[in-house]
Amino acid sequence: MTDIKSMNIEELKELMQTLGEKTFRAKQIYSWLHEHLVVSYDEMTNIPAKLREKLSVYPITSLRIADVQTSKIDGTRKYLFQLADGNVIESVLMRYKHGNSVCISSQVGCRMGCRFCASTIGGLTRNLLPSEMLDQIYSIQKETGERVSNIVLMGTGEPLDNYENLLRFLQILTEDGGLHISQRNVTVSTCGIVPRILELAEEKMQITLALSLHAPNDEKRQELMPIARKYAMDEVLDACRVYFQKTGRRITFEYSLVAGVNDSQENARELSDRIRDINCHVNLIPVNPVKERSYQRSTRQAVENFKIKLEKCGINVTIRREMGSDIDGACGQLRKSYMEKTESEK
User: Fold this and answer.
1) DSSP 254
2) I need a surface site. Which of 71, 192, 223, 257 has the fewest CB within 10 A?
3) Diameter over CA atoms, the chain
């Protein structure tokens, strides 16, 4: 079935021609879907009833809010959305002084197997359609009545493992006629699928690439991230250099600190040696404990010491501000607890 919310303007024009309609209708429909965020054809008041009837065979992707948790500390909102096929995904709204950020999922589950992540327990169910990625943002904007200005693809899933749908999502999100969010306000996180990073570099978009690095060497990275057995750290870092060269966009390195695994002063020194020639920024993340894993988060002092060491070596670094620590804030936690509850009720 044609997924009308995943169509770009050109495809919508083709659909209009197929239906024997004027092509200018495509722009009107596109605007209703991606600017006015309607969920039914009946809301498209300037579209003739006859055309609305023809379109009724093409369902409009619309997510159902299954659960919302709101942090009493900072107002962060964690959403659990149900898809048309019954699967559930998560998104997070974070409010900052500079505007609202939404962290969205790109897949149902994940097959990357990173050891400290709840999203990957249970593996990959399926990829999300562009419309399902977009509708996480649209639903949150409608539910809160607030404009979203920054998008981060760091929810459940590996965005570059859903590459074609990701590109289409980025196109619809950032071009005229929709929310028109600046490419510079979009961050795509990856655990390091090298061929896809190189492909993305060739698109020459202005999005930020965030690489989940999490270790200063191959041995430790392989312990934490199975993908590291396929792509060596040198290979991944070279791809990041190419990305910067092609786009001029500074690379973000995500580094989750796990007590006694990757948080020593020696680890910090080794990390700085590996990345000092890359125009980058390191984002230190005290890891969220996941009950199925034995990893513990580093102490506050260890995190601070790691940051100081990197700074002394000339690396630009910040510690990620914790948002929503009193709710199921970590990746995959809310979805997991919902699925466990549903299972136990059967």
Assistant:
1) E
2) 223
3) 69
Buried b (16+ CB within 10 A) or exposed e, 55-71: beeeebbbbeebbebeb
DSSP 13-53: HHHHHHTT--THHHHHHHHHHHTS--SSGGG-TTS-HHHHH
* Backbone φ and ψ of 144, nearest 5°: -95, -20
Active site residue 331: yes
CB 327 within 8 A of CB 70: yes
Q: Give buried/exposed letters for 282-309 (b at 16+ CB in 10 A, else e).
A: bbbbbbbebeeeebebbeeebbebbbeb
Residue 313 appears among annotated catalytic residues: no
State the catalytic residue, choosing from 90, 132, 158, 254: 90
Task: Give the closest residue to 259 by CA, choosing from 227, 306, 212.
Answer: 306
The proportion of the chain whose per-residue pLDDT surpasses 70, expressed as a percent, equals 92
Of 309, 214, 223, 307, the residue nearest 255 (C-alpha): 214
CB 125 within 8 A of CB 87: yes
Mean of the per-residue pLDDT values of the chain: 92
- CB-side exposure of 230: number of CA atoms within 13 Å? 10
Beta carbons of 185 and 151 less than 8 angstroms apart: yes
Predicted local distance difference test score (pLDDT) of residue 118: 74
Amino acid at 272: S
Q: What is the pLDDT of residues 226-270, one digit of tens each?
A: 999 999 999 999 999 999 999 999 999 999 999 999 999 999 999
Two tokens at 269? 């020194």
- Encode pLDDT of 143-184 as tens digits: 999 999 999 999 999 999 999 999 999 999 999 999 999 999
Catalytic residue among 199, 235, 331, 343: 331
d(CA 130, CA 166): 7
Window from 16-25, 36-45, 88-97, 336-345 with minimum mean pLDDT? 336-345
